[in-house]
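Database export, one record per block. Field names are fixed; values are copied verbatim from the stored entry.
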Amino acid sequence: IALSDLVTSSGYTGFGSLTEAPQDPPLTAEKAGTVNLYRSQKLVDDPEIDPLSNFVTLVKKKLTMMKKPNGTSIFPARTCKDLYMSYPDLPSGFYWIDPNDGLPNDAIRVRCEQPSYSTCLYPKSDSETFTTEKKKWFTGADGYKWLGKDLRMLKNIEYVSEPSQLEFLRLLSDRARQRIVYNCKDSVAWSDEKNEFSKSVKIKADNGVKDGKWHHTVLEVDTPKPHRLPIVDIAAYDIGDSGEEFGIEIERLCFT
């Protein structure tokens, strides 16, 4: 962008306007991603102050952020991988991304992980695992029950508020992975004491021990087909008899 495209004979355009400002504010100010330029009579009269130079500096800074977004809500990266390609020394942590590459007002806050460059979403909020109570959820004959559809245990799970962001993140990723923890007491999640699998959870695993104590089984789905995640429901079988209790933890969903 040429400087002539940003400056007109009447003043500055494109990134703000040159106006009188009360109480002698700083020559320049940046707020919410918009550069606003102010004229202070005191500063303008100072021959050592060059308003145009300050303006050009701000323009260069904003153009740099547009070219290499830094993961803030104002300048979200497209994915965590893109963020780390531009800023390889950034630590793992929470950043803002905009997979659909539109306006930043629908950017999403995610956890970016080094060194895998993973973009991770949480199923309930941006900082916690979705966890149910560990208790007796169903009484009756054993048989597959979907925890979300039948038992209403997985209500209010939401990964992103804008569905297109998840769709674009899938398209931009080569793999996806997610873990579920099945906490159980006297409830078979994988194989029973006879090493049979007729009572296994359809997407979870456990050791089949029935000793009146709590155990847990972890299943991680890692697939080269990102469109298959996130996990939206789970079916448990061995949950109807007396003493059979369980709980579910759904962990973050990560794309790489």
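Remark 1: The radius of gyration is 27 Å.
Remark 2: Residues 70 and 87 are 8 Å apart (CA to CA).
End of record.
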